[in-house]
């Protein structure tokens, strides 16, 4: 109470000083007073109260109407003060959540990290950029016991934290599959059962799974409702869509995922992506898949990793570019 | 972006006319309106997508939950007048195979 009293004296002196001199210095000190009040959680109505008391002391003869108007102001400020307090409390809470979220995002990075393998005869590039703090896209490389390379690329529908948590589930079920031979259709069928049992009805996952066999240079792939990938034929210099029908994971228990295969010739390229790539927008305009391919073509002379990074940079640099969804691009190229 | 949701109720049928964009911001609102309709036994819920030119995957999620709900409650979900860009999304995700979708866009007259 004594500090407040002191503040009252202080405020009264300041006010007197200002009324007398109209000096800037007094205004500066008023600002300090206000900062000090905030630090000590003194509410706005309390400051008004101090002002009213000071006025009464400086002008004992103050007309009753002015006096009444001051009380009116005081009442008004009480509800304002309450709202302000609530606002402060929310701000603190928000800061707390923000820091928890960044801890979660870091944890997710650790949980979902995958090592891009060094694979003889294939050049691999991969980039994944989240639109928000947590990434709902996922890609995963695994080498099975027969020496084939498995690549999974997935997108959880629903964004943010729930999506990220869901991804961890996928990763751990994939890790628990036997590593003898990772057949794409078998993997997707098993994952579908896991997702169908465990995930909320409005959440689902699209996934593309491919297996590269270096012995005969064949690429086997299946898709669970995932954005189609592209295949680049080096000799013809042409892209074609790797269309593979299949239902998104988690809708019905007994979905089946037919397996497709492709003979990969030297210089051929397999491009896998998520819809964050094809759903890019520049202002109001959508970026068409053909444009993505053109950009890939432009940077094709680079090693695969540099190529995917340059493609992302290209889109990032566009004016009014907004990343609405997580962006993941993975490229495999058979060495010439 | 905004989404306008208009619901017309008839005896065994509700028509839900949508106009705008279905994305992460508008999807929760749509879900709130759409799901209760699918919980009435024997009801047909027809969603008119003539004026929806953008939908992202969150929107798909709403229709998947609605579909699951119709199976549980013995009602029916029908999507009509779907635009090409939106249809592509249903096709890629394999949903055209398991959903009742009529994609003829309403003509001039």
From TrEMBL, chain A:
SMART domains: PP2C_SIG (SM00331). It comes from the Bacteria. PROSITE patterns: PPM_2 (PS51746). GO terms for molecular function: phosphatase activity. SUPFAM superfamilies: KaiA/RbsU domain, PP2C-like. Signal peptide: none annotated. Keywords: Hydrolase. This is Sigma-B regulation protein RsbU (Phosphoserine phosphatase).
From TrEMBL, chain B:
Residues 3-109 form the STAS domain. PROSITE patterns: STAS. It comes from the Bacteria. Keywords: Phosphoprotein. Positive regulator of sigma-B activity. Non-phosphorylated RsbV binds to RsbW, preventing its association with sigma-B. When phosphorylated, releases RsbW, which is then free to complex with and inactivate sigma-B. Belongs to the anti-sigma-factor antagonist family. This is Anti-sigma factor antagonist.
